[in-house]
Amino acid sequence: MIDPDLNPRKMRFQLSTSTVSADFAPLDFRHPVLAGELADALLHMHRSLGLAGGTAYNYRHAIVSLLRGLPTSYPRIVSLGMLDGDLVEALHEWELSLAATYPPESTLPSKRGRQIRRLIQIHEATGRPVGDSVLAWAQGRVLHGGGEETPLDEFSNAERLAIRDECRRRIRTLEDRLAIGQRGLCHGSAPDSDGWVRAHDAIWAVRHEGRYPGVSIDAVAVRACDQGVLNELSEEFAFDRATTYGGGARVMRRLMSYLYPSDTDLVAFRTLLQLETGAAPEEWSRVTLSDIETATDAIHVRLHKARARRSRTVRCALTHDGRTGWRAGDLLRRLIAVTKHARDEMTANLAPDAESLFLTVNRTSTRHLAARAESFSRRPFSSILTSISPSISHPHDARRLRKTVKSVRAAVLRSADVAAGDDHSVEVYQRHYAQTTTVHVLAGAAVNAAQQQVFTRIQRGPIFVNAHAHSVDGEADDTLAEAAAAEVTASSTDREMNVAHCASPYESPFSPAGRLCEHRPSMCFACPNAIVFADHLPRIIGYREVLRSYENEMSPAQFASVYGQQVANIEQVLDMFSQEQRDQASRDIQDVAERVHVPLAQRGAHL
């Protein structure tokens, strides 16, 4: 028997904003053999299938969830190759417990079950032993459904503008603070033995003395704040209660804000860049300086989407009138400017993330300052939205910004092809982005507009001439004169075929242009090409009786659906004749009705 390998597995995952080192030690779990087998399957799948870092990291979470959820009563040596059914029972109990662990709308119970099943299948495909019962479980159906997740909708236009304005306000405030901080660096110097007596010295010390490991300037910062030295920068330092619990952290955060952007400030930049370009949050989060290329009239940025394994270049326009603008290119320049101090520190330390676009400086647990790339792992976007009044609709998810931009494009451009853009197909747009409120409203508006066009043409109806054709003056309108002449010279067969005269049978609004109209006589009384003379009255009444005869063959609802509009159109035309004219035509109804020809396709249940 070969002893199982219980050594730690090295795992590194490239996420959207950083590289995560997540070494996996089987001996940290009660069932180390099973832990090692699943970890090996994950590493093999990550290498051979080229999984995105975030996807592989989620698989690691699934493994940890399973190992922590297995009952302690099962032996430590339990493995996928066991032939008895104990492990299958444990897997089933774990999967069943997921429903109580997550809310009903969560998709994680279904996702975790699929992930563990796939890892077992990968383990078996690499030639490792897997028990028949375990393999049957892995090849079976997932126990839980996909959850009751509500698709993310867009932000309303009012919300979009409110978010934009709040982010702009934060950036303006940040730039004002950094300008004060820059002046402080120019005029500040190392504090003397008497401590900090000037606010500029405090800013200088944060920049030059607070970043070394083992060095903490919290104590002197608290003392300077308590003595009112920092009130020169802002009166808000007086409300930080420097000498109370947590006061040092509050004072240092406020001092750092005069030199470095906070995570909320960086999210404000990313939010505006999303609104300008329509890119996903993860696309902007992973941008580096090497992805940025400056041209004469714009800045070109290479965006990467890890999950879709797709890269594209977006054009970020610039403002050229000398003003500090809010276009995408302007935002990039301003973002690079506000991260200058953090970038200088990372470059000096040869930090691997110095090229990242979004940089900040954090106060570590050892109370020294460290520059790093922003991970966007906290909830600064939500904190921005909660500060806006009136309140912004939930959920506070940055992905909704992308849907908002797509919806705005669809509204302005009236085209799914153009709204889809160059970052995914029209099919993906229709499946994920066309389900927003704006697009639904636009679709309804488009249908209403199309219906209105049809109704408008129907409302025009035929041209009505309450006179016999032979009495029409030959010098009248050409179309009318031709119609009258055609009716006078029509044969009995022609009269059987036509309940009205058609002025343009090859230009029917109900058939493709150039094709002979196929809707005679069902649509004649809703067609603007039709001309009705008094000569047609007996045939019109006869045609109405033909339609009425179909009423006995159908249910009322079916007849109203198929022939109701035709009968209504006929009645509208008949109302244009006098009662005496209709009575005279009705006396001849039997003779006329037999001579009205209705195409075979329109007899009975005509569809």
From TrEMBL:
This is Uncharacterized protein.
